[in-house]
Amino acid sequence: MRDAMNQTDLKKQAEQAGSRLHLIALAQLLGLSLLLVLTFVVDQRHGLEHVKRLAEGAARAHAQKDAIYRDLFIASGGAYMAVGKGIAPNTKLAHRPDRDITSADGRLFTLMIPKNLLAMASKRLPADNGVKVVSAIKTIFPLGPEDTPDAWEQQALAGLQQGRTEVSALVDADGSQVLRFIYPIKATRGCVKNRPGHGLEVGDFLGGISVTVPMASYEPFQQVHTRNALFLHVSLWLLGGIGILWSFQKIKKRDAAIFAAHKAQKNVLEELATTFDAIDDIITIQDKDMRITRVNRAACATFNAPAAELVGRYCYEMFCGTDKPCEGCPEVAALQDGILHHQDVEHRNSDKIFAESAAPICNDSGEIIGLVHYAKDITESRRQERQLRQAQKMEAIGTLAGGIAHDFNNILTAIIGFSELALLSPGLAVETREDIDQVHHAGLRAKELVKQILTFSRQAEQDFQPLHVRPVIKEALKLLRASIPTTISFEIDIADKSPLVIADPSQVHQVVMNLCTNAYHAMRDSGGTLLVSLQPVELAGLDVVNMAGLKPGPYLRLKVSDTGMGIKREDQERIFEPYFTTKKKGEGTGLGLSLVHGIVRAMGGYISVYSEEGKGTTFQVYLPVISEDKVALPRVAAAKVQMPTGKERILIVDDEESIVALEVRMLESLGYTVTAFTDPTLAHKTFEAGPDNFDLVITDMNMPHLSGLELVELLLGVRADLPIIMSTGFSHRINSKTAQKYGVKKVILKPLLLHELAQVVRSALDE
Question: What SS3 class is residue 696?
Fold first, then answer.
């Protein structure tokens, strides 16, 4: 019974809605009819105005034409015509002695004023489409009835006198409508002469050219316009009526579909809710106080809590664990200006970085009633970006270090070399020898410092070889144990057997010493535990995601940990930079960790750091391993020999005068005959003139106008068997491994030491 009542109510509501629709349709049709009638009337008025403007244009053209003719007649002094039929002397000009003249044949001619001439011309003009346009000059000082203005013209002339540029009006004349138009004219010299006693002066207002245009000639235009307008408005009425009927039917169908639409909307909302929960990133709905009203499943998973525990909490409370919004919060900005905002926010409470977006939710009146907040965890990608930036920064610093090392080595060559020569001089006073010896030692220390810088930048030569690092590390730890106080205990965890790596043993020793020394400095005040571990590990794809340059595979991991004061978060990204140190002045140079970084990267490995303030620091070094059955035995270092001498002829080329002078002194002290140049071009010409005059060439690498390699090519082109030694402070292009393909026998690095130079020269000559 209730269902039947519901059906009856629905039917009644449908009938009422249908009646309302009929009334609305009739009201729309009536409104359309009234609107079209109004627009038709307005259009007709505009049509009449348009026709009037056309007639005014024709009248204006006639008036301006007559004005031009009048000015032309006046400019020529007037015109004389033979007295005859229709032409008689003007009695108003009787005072003019030049009014009448007689020709040689006895004919009488009389002066015609412009208005009379124009009147005669106007009478003879043909009709325009059967309609005659009449024009005449009317003045305020008429000479006769023909130039006397009628009532309309008098009123129009009064308007012209007040400053109007023209006057026009539609008037009835003999049962038909005409356009009356008048155009102003001014007095000329002739007008003043013809009207004595009126006080006229040239330029005064005199009257106007009056034009009458019958409107009958424009009726066809108005009729065509009326027909077109009527057709258009009727068509619009029909189209409007059809549209009203069509919309009436559409509304009926819409009402029938409302129930289906509500049902479909409910389904869409269910689908949106499913999508809301299916998104992997955090989405929350919040009120305008940033209090969470709804969360998706990703939010629950991220914060490891059910939705009931998260709803009702403030956003900043949940994300940051604070009692106020975090700095740069996009939600605060969205609430302030009502637009979408994006921001990457680092939440220290959760140690995560989120890419956050916040958009306002507004009601129908545009008032902000809440927020949609989206947060994507980008912690890993940001860490990878930081590692990449760090690698690029270290690469740039390394390039700069190489350039500095080249120039610095040139300076050190002179300092060390000349101090060595000075120490060889006999008869030096003891104090002088001690002073020079201090200079020499300082130069050697500077040489080692430059070598460290080049090692950091991976641009120094290394003695890489297959190596078991286990004994090297144990030897380094033995030295450290003897120098570190017993307040710091050692925990050693070194595998019984470790795989081979490609490394320089002295550099592996440096890595261990530097990392352990840093650990000792972090614990020297309070004591602690130093842990050193060496273990083979297998890194999978996920393990090397954050290790720039490493590939999955077997590695040897060296781990050095301390229980000291730790490293501040903001300092951790800079600890591998040269000369960056957190130690007090005088306690460290800041080169130790940068040197370690350069050595590890040169071995193809990776170094990482993890530290928490007050909880200690852990460095981990990963070195790629090699299979023992694929490598040869390590090389055996040669024993040192005495400083050799000789009698050969040597050509020296270097653009630094101080270095040239030093090398000459050194080689001559060893017994050689030396010829030296600071200009490589001049050196080439000298050699070319006598290539057999020299047994050996020593040339610098970086020189202006002609580089060392270019000079080598030119010299070997003259004499292919010539032994050449390349001397360089630093070069990207050449080292001992690449020298042979350029034809260079030996490479010696600056700064030059006497015994090193002697051995290299003798070796190159003997080969």
Answer: strand
